[in-house]
Specification:
Elements lengths: L3 E10 L2 E11 L4 E6 L5 H8 L7 E6 L2 E3 L4 H6 L2 E4 L11 H5 L14 H14 L15 H13 L5 E5 L7 H16 L3 E5 L3 H7 L2 E6 L2 E7 L5 H9 L18 E8 L2 E8 L3 E5 L6 H8 L8 E6 L2 E2 L5 H6 L2 E4 L3 H5 L6 H6 L3 H4 L7 H14 L16 H14 L4 E5 L7 H16 L3 E5 L3 H7 L2 E6 L2 E7 L5 H8 L10
Parallel strand pairs: 3-8, 3-9, 6-7, 7-8, 13-18, 13-19, 16-17, 17-18
Antiparallel strand pairs: 1-2, 1-4, 4-5, 9-10, 11-12, 11-14, 14-15, 19-20
Length: about 500
């Protein structure tokens, strides 16, 4: 008997069908991948299974018995735990407090038992080889470390089903392998893992079966062995995957940005020409985001940037000054730094360009709406209305809105930090085309990505960082995945950075 079985499951929001008569099943002791394009219905299904929302029709059965979870707490009580793509941590609390939040051990006087809390947390982290300090404040952790806190917390609930929504999007290769090892051990112990991912290669590596969704319907469930990437893409988007365009030629006399990056380890100079896409590789914690934020007017202590265009210095004291200088940063963390979740799509799209869209200092809402609509149509946004709160969109469509906001400022140097994180293959190809088009029009683009394939597909040159320093530089026609990973890991690359 399947552990989870859904039959004719449907969900409608304001008359719009997010799920349509979905029927599928998953068994104990398997890793079952749930895949599909943004807006295909994956997140809606996960929300129904985890008690966040209730179905409009159809049934969910657990061990052959129909269930209807009124809340996430009800699902957790039934042994179903979910790790969402967007975090729900309390930054001011420690790792231990976040893992056992609301369930902290108490003394016989009702006070927090700190010693037992620390011991229980250490036992959990050691059991699953998660390298975190129980006492460290979560707000001081990297995005990847925060992801591992979310996973650790879910493991304290999951007794039957663990739902993982894009869990590897912010993890280094080593952390990914550790997570996969944890998943295999949990599967072998009889747990069902529902694994949502856009990274099709890792789906093929780790899952036993996959269910593919498109337009709110499940297209098919198949054993993963024997499925090719082309097979999966065909089911997901109804067509074969497009090939990223080859990087265009950059005029040799194009204007050049010269950037001096200063850290406690000295000053390094890099350059990028208008029309060029410069990729930045490196493992989690290498310092890529620190560099990007400093260049965009938001430095951290011990890191600073001086930038020039053809010898003229740029003002980068604040993000506002950087934007006026033509430098715009696209954040890697949409939820925390990128979106205003309760505001509509127009407000989110125009937030950085209000002064340009105003008339004599007065907001012109009609102009804002016209310009945002045109930009979102250019990015092929999927949304029922411009009045919809951005928090209601899928992760990929939220990313398109954040990108639209950056483009409305008419950037001359666009910094894209993990631009396709949580984005499906169809939307990813659209973003590739868009970035190549922006560069061809004369903008310089910095792309930070943890996906080496992405950097090789998009970039003219690739710089690699290790321990907050640039350590290697490679033209894309001389670059390969092995050399990039070697340099990122601290090894001696084929061509060191000068």
């Amino acid at each position: 008997m399947p552990l989870i079985e859904v039959s004719n499951l449907s969900k409608r929001y304001s008359g719009v069908a997010a799920l349509r008569d979905v029927t599928f099943s998953a068994e104990s002791g398997e890793i079952h991948a749930i895949i599909g394009a943004n807006g295909a219905g994956k997140s809606t299904l996960m929300n129904l299974l985890s008690g966040v929302t209730q179905p409009s029709g159809g049934t969910i059965s657990l061990d052959g018995k129909a269930v209807r979870f009124s809340s996430p707490q009800a699902a957790q009580a039934a042994g179903i735990a979910t790790v969402y793509q967007e975090f729900s941590l309390v930054p001011q609390l420690s790792v231990a407090r976040n893992i056992f939040l609301g369930r902290e051990p108490r003394s016989r006087f009702g006070l927090l038992d700190r010693a037992r809390l620390a011991a229980d947390t250490r036992d959990l982290l050691e059991r699953y080889s998660i390298a975190l300090d129980p006492a460290q404040e979560v707000g001081s952790l990297s995005v990847a470390e925060q992801q591992m806190v979310e996973i650790a917390r879910a493991l304290t609930y999951a007794s039957r089903v663990l739902i993982l929504d894009e869990p590897t999007a912010v993890l280094s290769l080593t952390e990914q392998e550790n997570l996969f090892s944890i998943m295999r051990r949990l599967r072998d112990s009889g747990l069902l893992i529902l694994f949502v991912s856009h990274r099709l290669e890792e789906v093929r590596r780790i899952s036993d079966r996959m269910t593919v969704f498109r337009d709110g319907r499940n297209m098919d469930t198949r054993p993963t062995p024997g499925m090719t990437i082309a097979d999966v893409v065909q089911l997901m988007i109804g067509r074969t995957q497009s090939v990223p365009p080859a990087p265009h030629l950059v005029p040799p006399d194009a204007e050049r940005y010269t950037i001096d990056y200063a850290t406690g380890q000295g000053v390094q100079r890099i350059d990028i020409r208008r029309g060029e896409i410069l990729g930045i590789a490196g493992l989690v914690g290498a310092g890529r985001t620190t560099f990007a934020r400093a260049l965009a007017g938001n430095p951290v202590p011990g890191a600073s940037v001086v930038a020039q265009v053809n010898g003229a210095a740029l003002a980068l004291g604040t993000p506002q000054e950087a934007i006026r200088s033509g430098i715009v940063y696209l954040t890697e963390d949409r939820k925390r730094d990128g979106i205003f979740a309760g505001l509509d799509l127009v407000a989110n799209t125009t937030a950085s360009a209000l002064s340009d869209l105003a008339w004599r200092g007065i907001r012109n809402r009609r102009t804002e709406r016209v310009r945002s609509r045109a930009m979102l149509e250019r990015l092929q946004l999927v949304a029922a209305s411009l009045d919809l709160p951005i928090g209601k969109l899928s992760g990929g469509n939220q990313q398109k809105v954040v990108l639209a906001r950056a483009l409305l400022t008419r950037p001359q140097l666009l910094i894209c930090d993990e631009p396709t994180r949580g984005v499906d293959v169809g939307a990813k190809a659209e973003i590739y085309d868009l970035l190549c088009g922006i560069a061809a029009e004369g903008a310089a683009i910095l792309v930070i990505s943890s996906e080496t394939e992405e950097l090789l597909a998009l970039s003219h040159r690739i710089l690699t960082m290790h321990n907050r320093r640039f350590v290697a530089e490679m033209p894309v026609d001389q670059a390969n995945e092995n050399d990039i990973l070697l340099a990122a890991s601290g090894g001696t690359p084929a061509k060191e950075f000068s």
